[in-house]
Amino acid sequence: MATEIRVPTLGESVSEATIAQWFKKPGDAVAQDEPLVELETDKVTVEVPAPAAGTLESIVVKEGDTVEVGALLGQIAEGAGAAPAAPAKQDNEPQAKSAGKADLVDVVTPSAGESVTEAEVGEWSVKVGDTVKADDTLVELETDKAAQEVPAPVAGTIVKIAAETGTTVEPGVLLCQIDPSGEGVAAAPAAAAAPAPSAPAASAGSSMPPAPSAQKMMAENNLSADQVAGSGKRGQVLKEDVINAIASGATAAAAPAPAAVARGPVNAQDEVREERVRMTKLRQTIARRLKDAQNTAAMLTTYNEVDMGPVMELRKQYKDLFEKKHGVKLGFMGFFTKAVTHALKEIPAVNAEIDGTDIIYKNFCHVGVAVGTDKGLVVPVVRDADQMSIAEIEKEIGNLGRKARDGKLGMADMSGGTFTISNGGVYGSLMSSPILNAPQSGILGMHKIQERPMAVNGQVVIRPMMYLALSYDHRIVDGKEAVTFLVRVKESLEDPQRLVLDL
């Protein structure tokens, strides 16, 4: 009996892939879950594991062919294969498998989600010799998107830590070993183990040739391999990398890599009081994305101010009743998010994005809410905020905020946003110019509420005022549209009844 090998689901909006390379040929013995073939999409490379142990009977598609999700790749004949490996667990669970000794359990790097191919080992919560219970946190892994805690799959004693803090690891790499009997002899600490090599950042040092679709696009644009930084496995250049390189202004002439900024003379006494700390993956990604946004978009900021008195009075009048009925406190973010969704419907360009020479208008509002954590800034997304009530928005923002602070945000929580709100006012900021969250075309900056003297009906009165800042991509949003958008937000907040009446 033969087992079919088919193209797996490759993620939202990905319907096809290119055969990058086969790891086996017909007649080879394969073990269950052993990688058979690597597929390449415009976003990520994916290894397809063997669904069963046996012998690779046939290969239906060759390297370079494009296949759709669900297409037949080949067949495995049962028998004559290697002993099957332990079944794979869910993507977000650490895999535990037999490790030579039947009584030892391997804890390996779990998959962190679509497009995440590596992680950095953070602080260990345990050391060799420690006793742990099932589901105790062992170590925290940091990716360029979020932090993820790895729990103990079984109770027992830590007998080996194989990956030091700061090591870059790929999914499936051994992190530590647990003796479930609790009697294991402590193995050598992480220092004795060779750290897993990190994937090369650029194609110049990659062991992988560019993906077929990337190679074709590079040839069409006269780009050389050393001009495109690869983000795939082992530094492989993907189609998305070439698109990003073209968008950032790469030309046929290779530009030299930027040199590190030279430090000036450092006094010896000062140097011993310095502390050098490696940037986390998340912080590196934040830095790169913010700089890319500045380099790519024609970014401009327009300002206005809003009298927060009406919203504050409404909160004061109904906050107790609101919390009693909905089980959540009535904050400012619900009003701002609702005001933003009303304005986005009137000015759709602010809710759109540029894709090459096309403009993509979004007929929905997925509003990102920037949240500061001790790991850095993350932007979880309130999906379909335009269809929510203020109470529903407040509940969702509260839930996402808790997940962000606990390091529990997943990829699905932070992808797909169409517009972003950043509240620097909680830290005391009076005025700032927020940077776009690419590929979005607009971001609203909220600030501190401060009482100021204002002229109202010919009289000077003290009012609780807030400065608003809208940064926008001038390539797609005109000044008139940006100013009108900000005025509509101001009008909704100064007259909250407009939100109720959908005006």
Automatic annotation (TrEMBL):
The record lists the catalysed reaction(s) as: N(6)-[(R)-dihydrolipoyl]-L-lysyl-[protein] + succinyl-CoA = N(6)-[(R)-S(8)-succinyldihydrolipoyl]-L-lysyl-[protein] + CoA
EC main group: transferase
> Domain Peripheral subunit-binding (PSBD), which positions?
209-246
Its pathway is:
Amino-acid degradation; L-lysine degradation via saccharopine pathway; glutaryl-CoA from L-lysine: step 6/6
Reported EC number(s) for this entry are: 2.3.1.61
Decide whether keyword Transferase is in the record. Answer: yes
Composition bias, kind Low complexity: at what positions?
A: 196-208
According to the record, the residues making up region (Disordered) are 83-102, 196-216
Q: One Pfam family of this protein, by short name?
A: E3_binding
Required cofactor names: (R)-lipoate
Q: Which GO terms describe its molecular function?
A: dihydrolipoyllysine-residue succinyltransferase activity
Q: Which CDD domains match?
A: lipoyl_domain
Entry keyword set: Acyltransferase, Lipoyl, Transferase, Tricarboxylic acid cycle
Q: Which family does it belong to?
A: Belongs to the 2-oxoacid dehydrogenase family.
Q: What is this protein called?
A: Dihydrolipoyllysine-residue succinyltransferase component of 2-oxoglutarate dehydrogenase complex
According to its UniProt entry, this protein's organism is: Roseibium sediminicola
